[in-house]
Design a protein that fits this description.
Layout: E1 2-7, E2 10-13, E3 18-26, E4 32-39, E5 46-52, E6 57-59, E7 67-72, E8 77-82, E9 91-101, E10 104-109, E11 113-118
Parallel strand pairs: 2-11
Antiparallel strand pairs: 1-3, 3-8, 4-5, 4-9, 5-6, 7-8, 9-10, 9-11
């Protein structure tokens, strides 16, 4: 089994910064993607950023230039540095691990951490 433990959410004023951290433990395969999704109040969960085991990244257009995702493969951790935060970034942020073994894909979620950006 896989566990994802998140930390780093909180309340910040617009223009401020926060850093989210997620540590994965358990059966981690070599081919995977770790990332962050968010779910604003009353809306669907959406991709924020993800980073693959080869280092390639994807970002939502709304966070490009403001957020940076990075990972430490040795520690199975992923960081999301969020700068220039806006009130519309307010959401519950979920860490995600998606990994592949052959043709099979496995998806895991953290418990979520609240990020609130005040105007």
């Amino acid at each position: 089994q896989v566990q994802l433990v998140e930390s780093g959410g909180g309340l910040v004023q617009a223009g401020g910064s926060l850093r989210l951290s997620c540590a994965a433990s358990g059966s981690i395969f070599s081919i995977n993607a770790m990332g962050w999704y968010r779910q604003p109040p009353g809306k669907e969960r959406e991709l924020v950023a993800r980073i693959f085991s080869d280092g390639s990244t994807n970002y939502a257009d709304s966070v490009k230039g403001r957020f940076t995702i990075s990972r430490d493969n040795a520690k199975n951790t992923v960081l999301l540095q969020m700068n220039s935060l806006k009130p519309e970034d307010t959401a519950v942020y979920y860490c995600n691990l998606r990994q592949w073994l052959g043709v099979n894909a496995y998806n895991y979620w953290g418990q979520g951490t609240q990020v609130t950006v005040s105007s």
